[in-house]
Amino acid sequence: MLKNSNYNLIKMNACPKMEYIDTEGAIKASVNRMKAVRKAVGPNIGIGLDFHGRLKYPMAKKLLHELEKFNPLFYEEPICSS
Q1: What is the spatial order of strands in the sheet that 9-13 belongs to?
Q2: Cα–Cα distance for residue pair 76/14, rounded to 1 Å
Q3: 76 near 51, Cβ under 8 Å?
Q4: pTM, whole model, 2 decimals?
Q5: Percentage of the chain with pLDDT > 90?
Q6: Over the chain, what HEC string results?
Q7: Is the pLDDT of residue 21 over 60?
Q8: Whether 49 contacts 75, CB under 8 Å
Q9: Hey, how many other C-beta atoms are within 10 angstroms of the C-beta on 42?
Q10: What is the domain partition of the chain in residue ranges?
Q11: How much is the average pLDDT of 26-36?
């Protein structure tokens, strides 16, 4: 695991592409992914979340709120521009 490495920051994909309004299951899957990574690396590793523009505003608002409890370092490109 990363706990015993020299890394202090990681960046990961936050979620697959979501619909304009998606299911609670889609949100839960992303939250569970972040929860597992946070557990694996511990509190002293910064985690950046890259969304690659896979969200529309309604889902971004809800999902980012749910992910906040895992103390992400940053959110990159959450909103789809088209």
Answers
A1: 9-13, 46-50, 74-76
A2: 9
A3: yes
A4: 0.85
A5: 73
A6: CHHHCCCCEEEEECCCCCCCCCCHHHHHHHHHHHHHHHHHHCCCCEEEEECCCCECHHHHHHHHHHHHHHCCCEEECCECCC
A7: yes
A8: yes
A9: 10
A10: 8-76
A11: 96
